[in-house]
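Mods, move this if it's the wrong board.
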Amino acid sequence: MNLNERAKYITDALIDLADDLKIGTSVSPDGTSLIDLGVSVTGGLEAGRLLAEVCLAGLAHVSYVPSPEIFPTTTAIQIETDHPIRACMASQYAGWQLATDDYFGMGSGPMRAAAGKEKLFADIGFTEQASHAIGAIESGTPPSGSVCRLIADACGITPNNLTLAYAPTASLAGSVQVVARSLETALHKMHELGFDLARVHSGTGLAPLPPVASDDLVGIGRTNDAILYGGEVSIWVTGDDESITAIGNKIPSLTSKDYGKPFLEIFREYDHDFYKIDPYLFSPSVINISNLETGSYFRFGNFNSRVLEQSFGLS
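Not the wrong board. Structure tokens:
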């Protein structure tokens, strides 16, 4: 079963249980199935958990666990997967910038693998054909007809064979799905540092769930800070130890020149331009690496509860 087929089981459940989950569903004039998890509806915890699993193509388990005492929240988001490259890199990574004359949003989910437009797919050696594509969009507005057609064309399908789930960052479901990206950020950083991701066999991630923000800009800040200053990732790899020690200290967010302030402050300093921010900032605060072949264990990075308290409005 391919990634889009796996994710469709979850989106079908979202549609069937829409009332229970406090979400909305509709069909666009072109036949695209739309699932609103936070724009004109309240959404909720279970909606957010399922949205995160849609982004992960059903190849990871997302759950709510008690937050460590050093963090200023009671609840954390945990992710576990034995298929980290397909779940996180081929599906969850928000690598598709969706822009038309009347719409903008960041696209993630298995529709990315069906489109296969990003260089990342050549690097990981994975794309797929889909008869029905599933995507998630981080946006405060419903997908327009133009963006539905753009996605469908890129995936080689008609719009009536497309399902899109969407939520703003400033919503409970939207916050959950972003904070569930702790493992993905670590893998992406390792890829950028030249680590062979084929060596990664399993992974977990944990990050505190921040208070829901009053607007998307503050929401982007809080959800990013949850991972940058409170995210902890554990991965299990094979191969040599030397390549791990060579990059290990470079993986955590604290190696970035922009580290040390709430993300919203950093974002403002760069005129709200993501691409001006040091890309090495986008990673968890702590990473643990266990080598399945040598038995070696490595731990890199540190938490920063002070910045989390600032970000979450407690200081």
